[in-house]
Design goal:
About 0% of the residues lie in helices and about 45% in strands. The chain has strands at about 10-20, 20-25, 30-35, 40-45, 50-55, 60-65, 70-75, 80-85, 90-95, 105, 110-115, 125, 135-140, 145-150, 155-160, 165. The strands form 4 sheets. A 4-stranded antiparallel beta sheet has the order 1-2-3-4, with no helix packed on it. Strands 5-6-7-8 form a 4-stranded antiparallel beta sheet, with no helix packed on it. The chain has a 4-stranded antiparallel beta sheet with strand order 9-10-11-12, with no helix packed on it. The radius of gyration is 16 Å and the shape is globular.
Amino acid sequence: MNNSTNIKPLALNNIQAAGINAIYAVGAQGTLLQTTNGSDWKTLPTATATNFNAIQLNTTKGLIAGDKGYLSIITIPTVALTNIPLTTSNNLYDIALNTSNKAYIAGANGTLVSIPNITSPVPALASPQPAEDFRGICFKFGSNQIYAVGDNTAVYSYNRTQNGLSNTFNK
């Protein structure tokens, strides 16, 4: 069943601007909204009822992450979604995407997915995976190092080139 064109109000989980005029929002049951003027929003079909938790965009491409390991590339302005198969079914909660199209995706049960270039995605899961859910993620400015935060005051640092995930904060 495709609920992405549902007319009842659904929860929105994340929002992202794409260029000067376009803004996209994602949410429950595959909701994807778009505005090109900041006030008139339209619902875009996604052909999925999976909850979307995060969206990050560069100029013409980006990622949408959701429940049950859902990850797709979004191409704009045509708004085409292309699924990226993952080896995890954990919920994905946040995305860090830099200007060179390198991405990291944070999720439940210590899930951390790295993609060196979203234009030709080859996802890899970081290890070890801690027990904490990762709820937020960001790049350290000027580097490929990322920080992920989550449950139990978890703060982890990761750099794929150094192949390590380490806890950087102890309560």
